[in-house]
Write a structure and sequence with these properties.
The protein has 209 residues and is mostly beta strands. Helices cover 0% and strands 57% of the residues.
Length: 209
């Protein structure tokens, strides 16, 4: 099944039949829209919000939904973006893009509760942290909007370990996939003022042999 976060709410979609089932509306404010979502290790759906047509500082939230109950986990965000979980499920990583930082939250997987602990990564320069994922070694990968790259970070030390450059300035999201998670998938976005023929494409890069 697929989950789709739309202006009218969250839907479950069958990839075989296309049947859509409405699940819940987490934020019915017409000035807001959903932005980036992910499942936690127990299958709860996490999704954040941002202003629909303009930035609305501190109006966004990060929600979770377990199929019955919805809750706000992080309030006062501006552009809710990357979400990731440690392999053990006890840490939530979350990006509110204008902060340029990745937040570390102590996460109670059984109860679905998150408590902010500290920031573990800060993106400097003209790029902005966007989507992210966590690999099998609990390292975090952050896609940089305006940076044309995805960077691997050690969340314990804050050290940047490597950088994957793309032929596109805007790299909004990334994830691991394929057999044994051997491949890295990176989305890119077009920018009207930039001559980037490959922008808007989906890239697949092997990261392990």
């Amino acid at each position: 099944m697929l989950l789709s976060a739309e202006k009218s709410g969250i839907y479950r979609i069958s990839p075989k039949t296309g049947q859509r089932t409405f699940l819940v509306q987490l934020d019915g404010n017409p000035s807001m829209r959903y932005n980036d979502g992910k499942l936690d290790p127990c299958g709860r759906f996490f999704v954040g919000t941002k202003g629909d047509t303009e930035d609305l500082p501190e109006r966004g939230r990060l929600f979770s939904y377990d199929g019955k109950q919805a809750r706000t986990l992080v309030a006062g965000t501006t552009i809710s973006n990357g979400i990731g979980f440690s392999k053990a499920g006890d840490i939530l990583y979350f990006i509110d893009t204008p902060t340029k930082k990745v937040g570390h939250y102590e996460y109670n997987l059984e109860k679905g509760e998150a408590v902010f602990d500290r920031h573990v990564v800060e993106v400097v320069g003209d790029a902005w942290p966007d989507g992210m994922c966590v690999d099998v070694d609990d390292m975090i990968w952050v896609a940089e909007w305006g940076g044309g790259c995805v960077c691997k970070w050690n969340p314990e030390t804050g050290e940047k370990l490597c950088e994957i450059k793309l032929p596109c300035s805007n790299t909004p999201s990334c994830c691991l996939g394929g057999d044994d998670l051997l491949y890295f998938y990176i989305t890119t976005a077009k920018a009207a003022a930039m001559d980037e023929p490959l922008a808007g494409g989906l890239f697949r890069i092997p990261i392990r042999s």
